[in-house]
Amino acid sequence: MTEQVPFTDVYVDDDIVDSATEVLDSRRYVKGPRVEALEEQFADTCDVGHAVGVSSGTAALYLAMKAAGIGDGDTVLVPSHTFFATVSPVVELGAEPVFVDVDPETYTIDETDLARKAAAHEDAAAVAPVHLYGQPAAMGPITTIAERYDLRVFEDSCQAHGATYRGDPVGSFGDAGCFSFYPSKNMTVAGDGGMLVTDDADLARAARELRNHGRDADGNHVRLGLNHRLDEVSAAVGIEQLSHLADWNADRAAAARRYRDRLADVDAVELPTEREDASHVYHLFVVQVPDRDELRAALEEQGIGTGVHYDPPVHQTPAMRSYLDGVPDLPETERLCDRILSLPMHPRITDEEIDRVCAAIRGFYE
Ligand SMILES: Cc1ncc(COP(=O)(O)O)c(C=O)c1O
Question: Where does ligand 1 bind, in terms of residues with CB under 6 Å?
Answer without folding.
Answer: 56-58, 82-83, 85-86, 130, 156, 158-159, 180, 182, 192, 194
